[in-house]
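Obj.: predict assembly geometry.
Materials: sequence records (below).
Method: joint structure prediction, all chains together.
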Amino acid sequence: MANGTWTNRRARGGYQLSLVVLFVLAVALVLIGKAQSSLFDRARAHVTDWMAPGLEVVHKPFDAVSNWWNSLGDTMAVHDENVRLKAENARLKQWQTYAVVLQARVKRYQLLLHAVPDPSLSSVLAHVIGRARRPFLETMILDAGKAEGVKPGQAVIDTRGMIGRIFLAGEHTSWVILLSDLNSRIPVISEPGHAQAILTGDNAKAPALETLAQGAQVHEGDQVVSSGDGGILPPGLPIGTVIADGKSFRVALLADPASTQDVEVVDFKNPVEIPAAPTAKDLPVTAAGLPPAAPPPPPAGNAPTTPPLIVPAPPKPQATVAEKPKPAPQQPPATDDDTDNQ
Amino acid sequence: MEHVSTLMGSRVFASVIPVTLALLGVVIANLPISFLGGFVPAPLLGLMPIYFWGLVRPDLMPPFWAFAAGVLEDVLSGGPPGVWTVSFIVTFALIDRQRDAFAGLAGVWAILGFATAATLCCATAYTVEALLYWRIPPFAPVMSELAMSVIFYVLVAMFLGLIHRRLVGPLRGDF
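Observations (raw structure tokens):
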């Protein structure tokens, strides 16, 4: 240990000038990073891409230990858990039947009303190759990046619900900011009250729910889903259940980032709305009572006689994606009591 | 002549060991691999060689390397840039100012000396983070990291002492 056996050649405070210079540089780094963090982000992405093959090999035994540790508590209560799961399974089967019937009915209504189609969701399957929990950051690293179509802002989900969103995408790896992270903010809705709120991470296991609208009614046990406000995250992604925390509310997350191994990175696209082609009556010349101008003669060659008025943009190519329907809303339209009464 | 070049090589090798261990500590602490499902945070492994050699051989651990370790910590940790750089430099300033007091400590007091330096480091990071985002970050995670760092220092200091006695000291040959 540092017990002072060596004769100190440097006097106390011998680095004062260089320390002042380096301190100023460090503060400048903080300010530059706050203003423009893309330089650091690129460096991180390169480092992670470079480390990815090694991480994939190394993380497996660590994950095994981690899973064993996480399952220690579960093994103690395996019988009770089994009984509870059987009861839950029976109840969910009833709900599934009900949901299928309602889904068919909603589709019929949408067809009858010519409703705007639901946004299309595609996803990239990725494997978790790293997790980091630091005092001011909770993150995981995935083995899919820009080359696979992953972009910053996309939602990351596992089989249970939303985990977080991509905040940095390298060529073949990407970093996920977890919902519980200090810097995570996403717009959500609690159902059935349809109260809009912001889910705010503070490094606690259950992030806080900050309601926006005055008089919004949130109750313990309400289901929280993404609202889709802002157009970045798809609406309706299951997130968790509201729990009371004194006078405020928090959300017990459905997903468990500590144990999940495979995730989906959801790419969300609003459908391109194609309005009906305008007729001759819609043209301003016609509306003013004047005869429409004759179309210009086609140039010599093989030009089309009537070029289309609106050309929809071609869809972007997707890498290793699988089209899937929008996930069904988590909150069924009836309560338990309603179901029991049916 | 050959003897002189061998001696120079040994001295260079010995002088890079502290810095290498500091940077290696940062890399290991920031490996995105979690024991026990993220139940405990990684200790500040990069700070330990900085503290150790900042006290016993400050000529082998100039403040520039504390700055470099801080930058590396910032890049690898994924957090906002500069937070750990400022923290490491502030901690180094404490070590530099109080070298006489810290270097004279032994046993449990040496651990408490590191705990003081680590507390300053974590408190600085906490303050910078709070100022950056203009809100109070949670206290528990940073306290866990501090506790882990102090606990780990007991083992790491033994290892660093061994390295110092077996490699750095004999190869430098000037103390």
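Conclusions so far: Chain A touches chain B through 64 residues (CB under 8 Å).
To do: check interface contacts against the pulldown list.
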